[in-house]
Specification:
10 strands, 4pyrrole_Mease_sub2, Ribosomal RNA small subunit methyltransferase I, rRNA processing
């Protein structure tokens, strides 16, 4: 018989949020694969648990090389527990490669559900949560970041991002440029920790706030695009969207066609708005 791969959620801040099953899995697994073995040691000490199995590191730098080794353990009947520093493995953390490889070898994969920064931030944001999409981390380079944001400019579902504190001001400024300064958002900082903070407001306002410097683990929740029907997007907004695309490297013709398709209006309407703005010196 093959073994079992267990993906276990770990606390995103407060260790008391650890699911009860986590302690049992840590104590009983044949192999514990951890993103950071030092953090794992602190977690097991806090939970009063001593792993009986072998503890190995499993992080971005060795994920590709260690996956085959862990799969062989699984095929041989071992129970392998995968934990990351915080939250659920595979969600912007190591794990996807191991899960895919285990599934391919018909190994059972299960999970110990636990805390999630994505769901916690959504719940606290005050924004619609009936439909949402998780976008993970944006690219570090400014041009690539703008391009990625352009792809979801018309997305009507609530958007969730992770971001590093030292890049938050640039990211919020880029979001304000692409989505508009008044688009509602929430910056969720240090969730479940002592200095937890949720800052809500328009993207322009939040970008100005973040420019002063922000610390901690960050999750950003952004309201989806307004649910407007064909012809309901004003000329000024059409021009702004075309400019955002042009600044990201698109030719004007392609930018006009993309914006027209995005908002559901004829290309001629977008073209006329751009020409009128140019003639007005806007």
């Amino acid at each position: 018989m093959t073994g079992t791969l267990v993906l276990a959620g770990t606390p995103i801040g407060d260790v008391q949020d650890a699911p009860p099953r986590l302690a049992a899995e840590l104590a009983g697994a044949d192999v514990v694969a951890a993103e950071d073995t030092r953090r794992l040691r602190r977690l097991t000490q806090a939970l009063g648990v001593t792993p009986k199995g072998r503890v190995v590191s499993y992080f971005e730098g060795n994920e590709s090389a260690r996956t085959p080794e862990l799969v062989e353990e699984l095929v041989g009947g071992a129970r392998v527990l995968l934990v990351t520093d915080a939250g659920m493995p595979s969600v912007s953390d190591p794990g996807y490669r191991l899960v895919a490889a285990a599934v391919e070898r018909e190994v059972r994969v299960t999970a110990v559900p636990g805390p999630s920064a994505v769901l916690t931030a959504l719940a606290l944001s005050g924004l619609p949560v009936d439909r949402f999409c998780f976008e993970g981390f944006l690219p570090r380079k400014a041009g690539e970041r703008l391009s990625r944001l352009r792809e979801v400019a018309g997305e009507r579902r609530t958007l969730v991002y992770f971001e590093a504190p030292h890049r938050l001001d640039d990211t919020l400024a880029a979001m304000a440029e692409v989505f508009g300064t008044d688009r509602r958002a929430a910056v969720c900082r240090e969730l479940t920790k002592t200095y937890e903070e949720v800052r809500r407001g328009g993207l322009g306002e939040l970008a100005a706030w973040a420019a002063e410097g922000v610390r901690g683990e960050i999750t950003v929740v952004v309201e989806g695009a307004p649910d407007k029907g064909p012809g309901e997007v004003g000329a000024e907004e059409l021009v702004r969207r075309v400019r955002v695309r042009e600044e990201a490297g698109e030719r004007r013709k392609e930018a006009i066609a993309a914006v027209a398709a995005e908002v559901g209006v004829p290309k001629r309407e977008v073209f006329d708005a751009v020409v009128a703005a140019k003639n007005a010196g806007a």
